[in-house]
Amino acid sequence: MEQMKRVLSYVRRAVDDYNMIEEGDRVAVGISGGKDSLTLLAALAELRRFYPKHFEVVGVTVDMGFPGGTDFSAVQAFCDELSVSFHVFPTQIYDIVFNARKEASPCSLCAKMRRGALHNAAKELGCNRVALGHHFDDVVDTFMLNLFYEGRIGCFQPVTYLSRSELYVIRPLLYMPEKDVKYFAGKVNLPIITSACPANGNTERAEMHKLLADLERNNKGLRYRIFGALQRAGIDGYREISRMQGIKAYDDEEKNGDN
Fold it and tell me: Can you tell me the distance from the alpha carbon of 166 to that of 163, in angstroms, rounded to the nearest whole number?
């Protein structure tokens, strides 16, 4: 499938460049039900078929406990189609964050609790790596959020080792622009679940994403230059690769036009 080849071109390069997967790994893919995590799941399920280092893929969803519940049956069917085992771990995160704590800015606490639940689930399933669906745009957005709101230069790492839980967290989509994720999701009809979070779309991250999109209209390639600066400066584990994917992707986009 042509669409999958494009996704794999990004994913395999990231996995190779940052040594994200080793022989015998058992990788838990955190599945929120959104386009990013489902694209990552499909890519890793395909990659395991031919990658020289043999590894397993497990689908893991942290059920936030939204009122009325969430139907994950379509995701289960998708995992069955990919021959990936799927596990849902129920939590009371929604109730704690929005009812018990009544957080005015719930995202930070929610993210921390979701990470903890996902890591515990991965350990329970015998996994040694957790794969998250952060893509190229997320890298740049996060870097700029840290700069604007915290006054620091930094980003999440491509690969992070968590010593307390003895888990590696990997981000195989870090070279893949969001527009390509959207294109793939639409072409293959991924079973996307719309987020029921009350704060969805009303966050600092959403505002930063819009700001960068506005700036990019008059400054083509802005995101790629920011990403390249991250690599050249060696910030938080990013490093400059001789065949730097970000610049190549931008060059191809200029020559061929958007999808």
Answer: 5
**Which ranges in 18-146 belong to alpha helices (H)?**
35-47, 73-82, 93-94, 107-124, 136-145
Q: How far is the C-alpha of 151 from the C-alpha of 133, rounded, in Å?
A: 26
Q: Which amino acid is at 117?
A: A
Instruction: Give CA 147 to chain center in angstroms.
Output: 21
Nearest partner of 131 among 38, 228, 245, judged by Cα: 38
Contact status, residue 209 vs residue 136, Cβ threshold 8 Å: no
- CA–CA distance, 124 with 174 (Å, rounded to integer): 27
Beta-carbon contacts of 55 under 8 Å, excluding residues fewer than 6 positions away, are 21, 22, 23, 24, 25, 26, 27, 48
Q: What is the pLDDT of residues 159-201, one digit of tens each?
A: 999 999 999 999 999 999 999 999 999 999 999 998 888 777 6
What is the value of pTM for the model shown?
Answer: 0.90
Which residues are registered as beta bridge partners of 28?
Answer: 58, 130
Q: CA–CA separation, 41 vs 192, rounded Å?
A: 12
CB hemisphere CA count around 77 (13 angstroms): 8
